[in-house]
Design brief:
Length: 285
Protein backbone atom coordinates (compact mmCIF):
# COMPACT_ATOMS: atom_id res chain seq x y z
CA UNK A 1 0.00 0.00 0.00
CA UNK A 2 1.19 3.50 -0.73
CA UNK A 3 -0.04 6.63 1.05
CA UNK A 4 0.77 10.19 -0.03
CA UNK A 5 -0.98 12.30 2.61
CA UNK A 6 -0.29 12.88 6.29
CA UNK A 7 -4.01 12.71 7.09
CA UNK A 8 -4.45 9.22 5.63
CA UNK A 9 -1.32 7.92 7.28
CA UNK A 10 -2.40 9.31 10.66
CA UNK A 11 -5.78 7.56 10.32
CA UNK A 12 -4.12 4.25 9.51
CA UNK A 13 -1.68 4.54 12.41
CA UNK A 14 -4.49 5.53 14.80
CA UNK A 15 -6.27 2.28 13.92
CA UNK A 16 -3.07 0.30 14.58
CA UNK A 17 -2.61 1.99 17.95
CA UNK A 18 -6.19 1.10 18.96
CA UNK A 19 -5.37 -2.53 18.24
CA UNK A 20 -2.26 -2.24 20.45
CA UNK A 21 0.19 -2.88 17.60
CA UNK A 22 3.82 -1.82 17.91
CA UNK A 23 4.96 0.42 15.05
CA UNK A 24 8.33 0.59 13.30
CA UNK A 25 9.42 3.43 11.01
CA UNK A 26 12.15 3.16 8.39
CA UNK A 27 12.86 6.66 7.07
CA UNK A 28 14.45 6.68 3.60
CA UNK A 29 14.92 8.89 0.58
CA UNK A 30 14.01 6.00 -1.72
CA UNK A 31 16.18 4.38 -4.43
CA UNK A 32 16.03 1.43 -2.06
CA UNK A 33 18.81 -1.17 -2.12
CA UNK A 34 19.86 -4.17 -0.05
CA UNK A 35 21.02 -1.84 2.75
CA UNK A 36 17.51 -0.41 3.12
CA UNK A 37 16.10 -3.89 2.73
CA UNK A 38 17.99 -5.02 5.84
CA UNK A 39 16.52 -2.07 7.82
CA UNK A 40 13.01 -2.92 6.67
CA UNK A 41 13.55 -6.61 7.49
CA UNK A 42 14.66 -5.67 11.03
CA UNK A 43 11.54 -3.55 11.51
CA UNK A 44 9.20 -6.24 10.16
CA UNK A 45 10.84 -8.76 12.48
CA UNK A 46 10.61 -6.54 15.57
CA UNK A 47 7.34 -4.62 15.09
CA UNK A 48 3.72 -5.57 14.37
CA UNK A 49 3.46 -2.84 11.71
CA UNK A 50 6.11 -1.13 9.58
CA UNK A 51 5.96 2.20 7.77
CA UNK A 52 8.68 2.93 5.19
CA UNK A 53 8.86 6.62 4.33
CA UNK A 54 10.21 7.57 0.91
CA UNK A 55 10.87 11.28 0.72
CA UNK A 56 13.72 13.10 -0.99
CA UNK A 57 13.94 15.83 1.62
CA UNK A 58 14.82 19.12 -0.11
CA UNK A 59 15.94 20.89 3.06
CA UNK A 60 18.83 18.52 3.72
CA UNK A 61 20.47 19.21 0.35
CA UNK A 62 22.93 22.08 0.25
CA UNK A 63 23.18 24.49 -2.69
CA UNK A 64 24.91 22.79 -5.63
CA UNK A 65 24.16 19.25 -4.36
CA UNK A 66 22.28 16.54 -6.27
CA UNK A 67 18.65 17.27 -5.20
CA UNK A 68 17.32 17.36 -8.78
CA UNK A 69 19.19 14.33 -10.02
CA UNK A 70 18.87 12.24 -6.83
CA UNK A 71 17.52 8.84 -8.02
CA UNK A 72 13.73 8.52 -7.69
CA UNK A 73 12.42 4.96 -8.18
CA UNK A 74 9.11 4.87 -6.32
CA UNK A 75 7.58 1.89 -8.21
CA UNK A 76 10.59 -0.34 -7.55
CA UNK A 77 10.75 0.94 -3.97
CA UNK A 78 7.14 -0.07 -3.38
CA UNK A 79 7.85 -3.52 -4.81
CA UNK A 80 10.78 -4.04 -2.46
CA UNK A 81 8.76 -2.87 0.54
CA UNK A 82 5.90 -5.26 -0.31
CA UNK A 83 8.36 -8.07 -0.92
CA UNK A 84 9.85 -7.69 2.56
CA UNK A 85 6.37 -7.62 4.06
CA UNK A 86 6.24 -4.05 5.40
CA UNK A 87 2.77 -2.54 5.63
CA UNK A 88 2.91 0.84 3.96
CA UNK A 89 5.06 3.21 1.94
CA UNK A 90 4.56 6.81 2.99
CA UNK A 91 5.57 8.97 0.02
CA UNK A 92 4.51 12.58 0.61
CA UNK A 93 5.25 15.43 -1.79
CA UNK A 94 7.43 18.37 -0.65
CA UNK A 95 4.24 20.44 -0.55
CA UNK A 96 2.55 17.88 1.72
CA UNK A 97 5.52 17.97 4.10
CA UNK A 98 6.34 21.66 4.03
CA UNK A 99 3.09 23.35 3.07
CA UNK A 100 1.72 25.60 0.38
CA UNK A 101 4.51 27.19 -1.60
CA UNK A 102 6.78 25.03 0.61
CA UNK A 103 8.99 27.93 1.64
CA UNK A 104 12.05 26.11 2.87
CA UNK A 105 14.25 28.85 4.24
CA UNK A 106 14.67 29.03 7.99
CA UNK A 107 13.14 32.51 7.88
CA UNK A 108 9.80 30.76 7.42
CA UNK A 109 10.12 27.18 8.63
CA UNK A 110 10.65 25.88 12.18
CA UNK A 111 13.86 23.86 12.18
CA UNK A 112 15.31 21.37 14.64
CA UNK A 113 18.97 22.35 15.02
CA UNK A 114 21.37 19.72 16.39
CA UNK A 115 24.22 20.84 18.69
CA UNK A 116 27.15 22.59 17.05
CA UNK A 117 29.68 20.18 18.58
CA UNK A 118 28.10 17.33 16.58
CA UNK A 119 27.82 19.15 13.24
CA UNK A 120 30.99 21.24 12.96
CA UNK A 121 32.95 18.19 11.83
CA UNK A 122 32.98 15.33 9.30
CA UNK A 123 30.08 15.72 6.80
CA UNK A 124 28.67 18.72 8.67
CA UNK A 125 31.77 20.74 7.80
CA UNK A 126 31.27 20.66 4.03
CA UNK A 127 27.47 20.15 4.09
CA UNK A 128 26.50 23.18 6.15
CA UNK A 129 22.86 22.96 7.27
CA UNK A 130 22.51 19.35 6.13
CA UNK A 131 21.90 17.94 9.60
CA UNK A 132 19.40 20.72 10.41
CA UNK A 133 17.39 19.44 7.45
CA UNK A 134 17.77 15.80 8.54
CA UNK A 135 16.75 16.46 12.15
CA UNK A 136 13.81 18.59 11.05
CA UNK A 137 12.39 16.01 8.65
CA UNK A 138 13.00 13.05 10.96
CA UNK A 139 11.33 14.94 13.79
CA UNK A 140 8.34 15.62 11.51
CA UNK A 141 8.19 11.94 10.52
CA UNK A 142 8.30 10.94 14.19
CA UNK A 143 5.39 13.29 14.89
CA UNK A 144 3.39 12.00 11.93
CA UNK A 145 3.94 8.26 12.51
CA UNK A 146 4.66 8.22 16.28
CA UNK A 147 6.62 4.99 15.94
CA UNK A 148 7.86 2.89 18.85
CA UNK A 149 11.06 2.08 16.96
CA UNK A 150 12.93 3.81 14.13
CA UNK A 151 15.62 2.09 12.09
CA UNK A 152 18.73 3.83 10.73
CA UNK A 153 21.85 2.47 9.04
CA UNK A 154 25.33 2.79 10.51
CA UNK A 155 26.53 3.82 7.04
CA UNK A 156 25.43 7.37 7.92
CA UNK A 157 27.01 7.13 11.35
CA UNK A 158 27.24 10.86 12.06
CA UNK A 159 23.53 11.13 11.21
CA UNK A 160 22.74 8.20 13.52
CA UNK A 161 24.68 9.72 16.45
CA UNK A 162 23.03 13.11 15.90
CA UNK A 163 19.54 11.58 15.73
CA UNK A 164 20.13 9.61 18.94
CA UNK A 165 21.18 12.87 20.60
CA UNK A 166 18.06 14.62 19.26
CA UNK A 167 15.76 11.90 20.63
CA UNK A 168 17.47 12.08 24.04
CA UNK A 169 17.58 15.88 24.26
CA UNK A 170 13.98 16.36 23.09
CA UNK A 171 12.57 13.36 25.04
CA UNK A 172 11.04 11.88 21.92
CA UNK A 173 9.38 8.56 22.84
CA UNK A 174 11.00 6.44 20.16
CA UNK A 175 13.83 3.91 20.34
CA UNK A 176 16.43 4.26 17.62
CA UNK A 177 17.74 0.96 16.32
CA UNK A 178 21.15 1.08 14.63
CA UNK A 179 21.63 -1.40 11.79
CA UNK A 180 25.00 -2.58 10.45
CA UNK A 181 26.41 -1.41 7.09
CA UNK A 182 25.59 -3.74 4.20
CA UNK A 183 28.51 -4.19 1.79
CA UNK A 184 28.99 -5.66 -1.64
CA UNK A 185 31.31 -8.70 -1.74
CA UNK A 186 34.03 -6.26 -2.86
CA UNK A 187 33.66 -4.36 0.44
CA UNK A 188 31.94 -1.32 -1.10
CA UNK A 189 29.26 -0.03 1.29
CA UNK A 190 25.84 0.10 -0.37
CA UNK A 191 24.57 3.61 -1.09
CA UNK A 192 21.95 5.08 -3.39
CA UNK A 193 24.71 7.33 -4.71
CA UNK A 194 26.68 4.28 -6.00
CA UNK A 195 24.27 4.52 -8.97
CA UNK A 196 26.25 7.55 -10.15
CA UNK A 197 29.52 5.56 -10.44
CA UNK A 198 30.90 4.21 -13.73
CA UNK A 199 32.55 0.76 -13.62
CA UNK A 200 36.01 2.34 -13.35
CA UNK A 201 34.88 4.68 -10.63
CA UNK A 202 33.35 1.74 -8.76
CA UNK A 203 36.79 0.20 -8.76
CA UNK A 204 38.28 3.41 -7.36
CA UNK A 205 35.51 3.45 -4.75
CA UNK A 206 36.92 0.27 -3.20
CA UNK A 207 39.61 2.47 -1.65
CA UNK A 208 37.18 3.54 1.09
CA UNK A 209 36.55 0.09 2.52
CA UNK A 210 40.13 -1.06 1.87
CA UNK A 211 41.50 1.87 3.88
CA UNK A 212 39.08 1.21 6.74
CA UNK A 213 39.61 -2.57 6.83
CA UNK A 214 43.37 -2.07 6.77
CA UNK A 215 43.25 0.45 9.62
CA UNK A 216 41.18 -1.99 11.68
CA UNK A 217 43.66 -4.80 10.92
CA UNK A 218 46.58 -2.58 12.03
CA UNK A 219 44.66 -1.62 15.20
CA UNK A 220 44.02 -5.30 15.92
CA UNK A 221 47.77 -5.89 15.64
CA UNK A 222 48.33 -3.35 18.41
CA UNK A 223 48.90 -0.02 16.60
CA UNK A 224 46.82 2.69 18.29
CA UNK A 225 48.64 5.88 17.31
CA UNK A 226 46.18 7.81 15.15
CA UNK A 227 48.80 9.45 12.91
CA UNK A 228 50.47 6.08 12.24
CA UNK A 229 47.08 4.53 11.43
CA UNK A 230 46.14 7.49 9.16
CA UNK A 231 49.43 7.18 7.27
CA UNK A 232 48.46 3.68 6.11
CA UNK A 233 45.64 5.16 3.98
CA UNK A 234 47.86 6.83 1.43
CA UNK A 235 48.94 3.66 -0.38
CA UNK A 236 45.28 3.11 -1.41
CA UNK A 237 44.76 6.58 -2.88
CA UNK A 238 45.47 7.67 -6.46
CA UNK A 239 44.91 10.80 -8.54
CA UNK A 240 41.22 9.87 -9.08
CA UNK A 241 40.57 10.29 -5.37
CA UNK A 242 40.03 13.56 -3.60
CA UNK A 243 40.14 12.80 0.12
CA UNK A 244 37.79 15.05 2.13
CA UNK A 245 38.48 13.58 5.55
CA UNK A 246 39.84 10.57 7.40
CA UNK A 247 39.10 11.04 11.08
CA UNK A 248 39.11 9.06 14.30
CA UNK A 249 36.23 9.95 16.60
CA UNK A 250 34.35 8.70 19.64
CA UNK A 251 31.33 6.49 18.91
CA UNK A 252 29.06 8.36 21.35
CA UNK A 253 29.84 12.06 21.03
CA UNK A 254 32.14 12.32 17.98
CA UNK A 255 34.97 13.80 20.05
CA UNK A 256 38.37 13.54 18.37
CA UNK A 257 40.62 10.63 19.35
CA UNK A 258 44.40 11.03 19.49
CA UNK A 259 44.83 7.41 20.50
CA UNK A 260 42.56 4.79 18.99
CA UNK A 261 40.57 2.48 21.26
CA UNK A 262 37.59 0.11 20.96
CA UNK A 263 35.12 3.04 21.06
CA UNK A 264 36.80 4.73 18.11
CA UNK A 265 35.05 5.06 14.79
CA UNK A 266 37.16 5.78 11.72
CA UNK A 267 35.26 8.02 9.31
CA UNK A 268 36.20 8.57 5.68
CA UNK A 269 34.77 10.75 2.90
CA UNK A 270 36.22 11.05 -0.56
CA UNK A 271 35.20 12.26 -3.95
CA UNK A 272 35.63 10.32 -7.17
CA UNK A 273 34.81 12.68 -10.01
CA UNK A 274 31.67 14.44 -8.83
CA UNK A 275 30.53 11.57 -6.63
CA UNK A 276 31.07 12.00 -2.90
CA UNK A 277 31.18 8.74 -0.94
CA UNK A 278 31.36 8.08 2.79
CA UNK A 279 32.09 5.03 4.91
CA UNK A 280 33.10 4.24 8.49
CA UNK A 281 34.19 1.42 10.74
CA UNK A 282 34.19 0.86 14.51
CA UNK A 283 37.53 -0.41 15.78
CA UNK A 284 36.09 -2.40 18.70
CA UNK A 285 33.28 -4.93 18.55
O1 LIG B 1 19.50 8.69 5.60
C1 LIG B 1 18.62 9.16 4.84
O2 LIG B 1 18.26 8.56 3.84
C2 LIG B 1 18.01 10.50 5.17
O3 LIG B 1 18.95 11.38 5.69
C3 LIG B 1 16.78 10.40 6.08
C4 LIG B 1 17.16 9.88 7.46
C5 LIG B 1 15.74 9.51 5.46
C6 LIG B 1 16.17 11.79 6.29
O4 LIG B 1 15.73 12.34 5.09
Amino acid sequence: MIIHTIKELRELVKGWRKEGYSIGLVPTMGALHAGHRSLIEKSVEKCDKTVVSVFVNPIQFCPGEDLDKYPRTLDEDEELVNDVGADVVFAPSPKEMYGEGHILSNDFLTYVIPPYFYVDKLCGKSRVGHFDGVCTVVNKLFNIVQPDFAFFGEKDRQQLIILKKMVKDLNIPVEIIACPIVREKSGLALSSRNKYLTEDQKNDALALSKILFNIKACYNKGINDVSALSETAYSYLNSNHSLEYLEFRDCNDLDEKKTADDDTIVFIALKIGNVRLIDNIKLGL
